[in-house]
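ENTRY TYPE: paired fold submission
RECORD: A
CONTENT: sequence, then structure tokens
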Amino acid sequence: MARVREDACRLAREESAQGTTEYAILVGVLVVIAIIAIVAFRDRVSELWQAISDGINSL
């Protein structure tokens, strides 16, 4: 009976670690995508902020 309990506890720990690893990989992928988007759209975002700033200053 103790062996079954030990196996169940070990399995639960392994699944928890797997879930944590999956979330870490997901966060890493999202960070890479965000960096690529920032680099790719840097000029457009800069133009947009400038237009917003000009609009606010003209009030």
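RECORD: B
CONTENT: sequence, then structure tokens
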Amino acid sequence: MTSDQPSLVTENLLLRPLSPLDSARVCELASHLEIAAQTTRIPYPYIEDNAREWIEAQYEEFKRGEQLNFAIVERSSGELIGVCGLSRINRENETAELGYWIGRPYWNQGFATGAVEAVVDYAFRVLGLNRVYSRYMRKNPASGRVLAKCGFVHEGTLRQHVKKWEKFEDIEIAAILKEDYLQHD
């Protein structure tokens, strides 16, 4: 699989295109119940076929300009530790949805914040988007804290917006505008 998708580098992270070779590691990290329980799109159990199919599908969506996902790699170890990216890229309205997850062993170490900052910077400075938003489950307040650290403003609650494991869940939505991002940069 070839890609003209860029890589992004921060002090501690390398955000690079996902590869089919990442399937086993993505599966290893995403197959934890805690990950699936706090995300709207990751199933449980999560098997390697899920990872492989998702990586292949996101690559096709990247080629169509609809999605841009990065493997989050810890630079010091070279280990893939999660995924961060943009989906629902809407060129007409200059918006995209930010999504991310970090493997359980890497929580509370600033990796999500670093990845989100890099992807948001890319969204505004390179893609020329005007608004980046993110939806997260109310029962995952840590995700809201990551977004707040990155300058996102909480916009509201989508009550009982998704049904996960036979239970309706509230979804929080937060966003950041290009003008606000550039003003605080």
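NOTES ON RECORD B: The CA atoms of residues 71 and 83 lie 5 Å apart. DSSP finds six helices and eight strands in the chain.
STATUS: closed
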